[in-house]
Amino acid sequence: MIPARYSASRFPGKLMQDLNGKTVILRTYEATKATNLFDDVFVVTDSEIIFKEITSNGGKAIMSIKEHECGSDRIAEAVEQLDIDIVVNVQGDEPFTEVASLKKLIQVFKEDKEKQVDLASLMVHITDEEEIKNSNTVKVIVDQNNFALYFSRSPIPFPRATDVGAKYYKHKGVYAFRKEALLDFYRLPMLPLEASEKIECIRYLEYGKRIKMVETDVEGVEIDTPEDLERAKKLWK
């Protein structure tokens, strides 16, 4: 499932921007489908423009019925009546969908015989100080088994001591959910921590869900600004 809004505060209409001959959202859809990892791939959107862009190019799209504040809610509404077990969320502004990382997420559930994992997501080790301090970069800290402890836009852990070998990880917004965990998210109200940080996966933690983080060394390009789009064009070439 690829949640896709037309409006975006930092870069309105970014998913319909041209990325070397095709729109960003179409590039993302085609790249996700080309992985051959999924039984089916859908774009889930509230925008008729995006819906027509996908369907007119032979793709599958679902129009949201309700207004939604986040991608997880949008996907939950779309899958509520579908007979599925695992749902993978690929962000619409990440056209460089990468097969190895998605395989790692799916493998988490294949190995989780006791069904202790509610959802899995990706993280990338970062060392650049500016990126660590950047509030647009969501950071995650994990326990010894790589289960998420907390997500924040602030640097976590706080570097009071700089010689202890603490690592910083950037959260990549690619998820794999058990369907029931996703529907629980959809039905439960937002709590203060999520509302404060504006990070939807905090809701899972606040309600006791277990998030398995999977490290990847592929950062890709998230298209949040016009400058990101220019970088993506160069990388695509």
SSE order and pairing:
Blueprint: E1 2-4, E2 18-19, E3 22-23, H1 24-34, E4 43-45, H2 48-55, E5 61-63, H3 71-79, E6 86-89, H4 99-111, E7 119-126, H5 129-133, E8 139-142, E9 148-152, E10 168-178, H6 179-187, H7 192-197, H8 201-206, E11 211-215, H9 226-236
Parallel strand pairs: 1-4, 4-5, 7-11
Antiparallel strand pairs: 2-3, 6-10, 7-10, 8-9, 8-10
Question: Would you give an account of this structure?
Answer:
This protein is globular. The two termini are 26 Å apart. Helix 3 (71-79) crosses helix 6. The protein has helices at 24-34, 48-55, 71-79, 99-111, 129-133, 179-187, 192-197, 201-206, 226-236, and strands at residues 2-4, 18-19, 22-23, 43-45, 61-63, 86-89, 119-126, 139-142, 148-152, 168-178, 211-215. It contains nine helices and eleven strands. Strand 2 (18-19) and strand 3 form a beta hairpin. Helix content is 33%, strand content 21%. The strands form three sheets. Strands 6, 7, 8, 9, 10 and 11 form a six-stranded mixed beta sheet that branches. The chain is α/β, with parallel strands linked by helices and 237 residues long.
